[in-house]
Amino acid sequence: MMKLSWVWIVIAIAFLQLVTGFLDFNETELSLIEAYDFGVSKLNYNPLMVGLTLITSAGAKGAVCLDGTLPGYHWHRGYGSGANSWLIQLEGGGWCNNVRTCVYRKKTRRGSSTYMEKQIPFTGILSDKAEQNPDFFNWNRVKLRYCDGASFTGDTENKAAKLQFRGQRIWLAAMEDLMSKGMRNAKQALLSGCSAGGLASILHCDEFRNMFPRTSKVKCLSDAGLFLDAVDVSGGRTLRSLYNGVVGLQGVQHNLPRICTIHRDPTSCFFPQNLISNIRTSLFILNAAYDSWQIQSSIAPPSADPHGYWHECRLNHAKCSASQMRFLQGFRIEMLNAIKGFSQSRENGLFINSCFAHCQTERQDTWFAANSPEIRNKAIAIAVGDWYFDRAGVKIIDCPYPCDKSCHYLVFK
């Protein structure tokens, strides 16, 4: 009965989003993609549930969520060979780019710890089971909750709207708190993140590396964080417009890598394609070549498709016309061009599969299971592990859709 209740809750939320225009992606408290992921995790697995820890020291530092509440994380302690190894997973969940959407967001788990789940399931890269997470199951695994709306990079406020944009301070307060709880002794560390958290793992990668001695093995992983500065179906740039609002509203420009901002405008430096070649720390990029979120919210959002020509296609790739598929193939090529310089480094890793998907590390079925997505017979978990532990160089790019038969496609009704 409990499982069925969760299903109906998820369906009800998804329906409510549709009828209230929630797919105007500026308001991303719970996207359809997240609802889908939550349903899969809840129904098919029996995951470890990990409680929320609020960072009590954050308040004095002004490191607070949009509504001024304390930020938090979920931590499952490592043991055995993983006792001094740390995996930090930065939560995703879109962005807010104006006062209206940020005010809305602060009444949700994406802007206030008041609304955060007190326990969350640890699946995929966060799983505590060796058969589900062979390389990281006994590490200290931390999920840092996302409540600032700017990928942990803003630092300003809007007093009139009672909004605190303190993502950078939250990031620093969380790292300081975890350092005091043993992370300073880490022999191995991996900063990872999904979606907006995947972007954050790129933005904070070198900063994270510099928190540890040179003798520590420190790397970064971005899952579904390769957001492209791409042209949408109307010829505009929907995502650039959104990012411009985020950067301007939340004071992000002060916390972007200077190696980028001395050459480009701040909004351009919020796009990972303009950052990844200059990151000094070893970085792994995991992305679907046909990223479902980018298709729905950047390439073919309703605002760029007023007549609904793309409506069916954006929800289900099987309903795309030949011309629409050519457009999406062009998007894949743009993604591959964006990683050309990055891929030249021997230290970096790549796994670009030709799936209509988004966030593949946290879901058990896509991270490591009997029928997980593979490229050249290598599952995502094995590819990431081989790269992290230097067992093999990993730069794997799939052939174009529809050649990959191992994909777990996201299809929305």
From TrEMBL:
GO CC terms for this protein?
plant-type cell wall
InterPro entries, A to Z:
PAE/NOTUM
Q: Which GO terms describe its molecular function?
A: pectin acetylesterase activity
Query: Which class of enzymes does this protein belong to?
Result: hydrolase
What does the UniProt entry say about where the protein is found? Secreted, Cell wall
Annotated Pfam families: PAE
What Enzyme Commission number does this protein have? 3.1.1.-
UniProtKB keywords = Cell wall, Cell wall biogenesis/degradation, Hydrolase, Secreted, Signal
Q: What is its main location?
A: secreted
The superkingdom of the source organism is Eukaryota
User: What are the recorded Gene Ontology BP terms?
Assistant: cell wall organization
Signal sequence, start to end: 1-21
Family designation: Belongs to the pectinacetylesterase family.
Stored PANTHER family: NOTUM-RELATED, PECTIN ACETYLESTERASE 12
- Function field: Hydrolyzes acetyl esters in homogalacturonan regions of pectin. In type I primary cell wall, galacturonic acid residues of pectin can be acetylated at the O-2 and O-3 positions. Decreasing the degree of acetylation of pectin gels in vitro alters their physical properties.
Q: What protein name does the entry list? A: Pectin acetylesterase
Q: Which organism is it from?
A: Gossypium hirsutum
State the taxonomy lineage.
Answer: Eukaryota, Viridiplantae, Streptophyta, Embryophyta, Tracheophyta
Q: Which gene encodes it?
A: LOC107918865
